């Protein structure tokens, strides 16, 4: 369906705006080659690991409490059993609240990602605008955007490298090296996704 929509979009632009200039950018490629973005991702990953350990520790405590109750149940009075069950329930609620706090719709994970990554994404957007104006493009499509699928793209219209150089003019790696690293990363992600789907 998306391909059909994009096909008709191309026809529309071909008929009514044939004099306009078009370009496209792969923002995934640009971001993956920006040191600042890599650092932001590492910070986010480190924080996420800390939160995961925090929840694992609470889960371990909960399991210990449950195991202790089952081991001692036969020796305990009903009142003592009820007391321990209440504490177990409190621990479950504590874990649930922490999960929501860390990973909920307005949780720490999303807010931290916004804080670390959004400023860099805004820089990319501004760089795209600069390159588009410099090249007199009327439209620039994002090749990485899943809502817009390109059925054909001429490399001569790819401004990803120019956007990257606008953001990070001092990059030492060559274009070929960056492209190879990016392709390897995409392939690894694709393989990991397939493995996860099979589980």
UniProtKB/TrEMBL annotation:
Family annotation (Pfam families): OmpH
Keyword annotations: Coiled coil, Signal
One annotated Gene Ontology cellular component of this protein: cytosol
Signal peptide location: 1-19
GO MF annotation list: unfolded protein binding
Record GO biological process: protein stabilization
Phosphoprotein among keywords: no
Gene3D superfamilies according to UniProt: Skp domain (3.30.910.20)
Sequence segments annotated as region (Disordered): 170-199
Tagged with keyword Coiled coil: yes
Coiled coil: 41-101
Amino acid composition bias (Low complexity), ranges on this chain: 188-199
Family named by the database record: Belongs to the Skp family.
This protein's name: OmpH family outer membrane protein
Organism: Ornithobacterium rhinotracheale
């Amino acid at each position: 369906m998306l391909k059909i929509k994009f096909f008709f979009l191309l026809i529309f632009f071909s008929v009514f705006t044939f004099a306009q200039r078009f370009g496209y950018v792969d923002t995934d490629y640009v971001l993956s080659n920006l040191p600042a973005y890599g650092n932001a991702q590492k910070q986010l990953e480190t924080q996420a690991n800390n939160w995961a350990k925090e929840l694992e520790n609470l889960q371990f405590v909960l399991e210990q409490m449950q195991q202790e109750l089952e081991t001692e149940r036969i020796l305990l009075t009903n009142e003592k059993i009820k007391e321990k069950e209440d504490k177990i329930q409190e621990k479950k609620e504590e874990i649930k609240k922490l999960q929501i706090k860390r990973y909920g719709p307005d949780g720490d994970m999303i807010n931290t990602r916004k804080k670390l990554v959004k400023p860099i994404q805004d820089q990319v957007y501004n760089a795209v605008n600069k390159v588009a104006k410099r090249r007199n493009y009327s439209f620039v499509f994002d090749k990485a955007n899943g809502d817009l699928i390109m059925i054909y793209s001429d490399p001569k219209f790819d401004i990803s490298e120019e956007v990257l150089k606008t953001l990070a003019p001092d990059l030492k790696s060559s274009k070929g090296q960056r492209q190879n690293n990016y392709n390897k990363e995409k392939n690894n992600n694709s393989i990991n996704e397939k493995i996860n789907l099979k589980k």
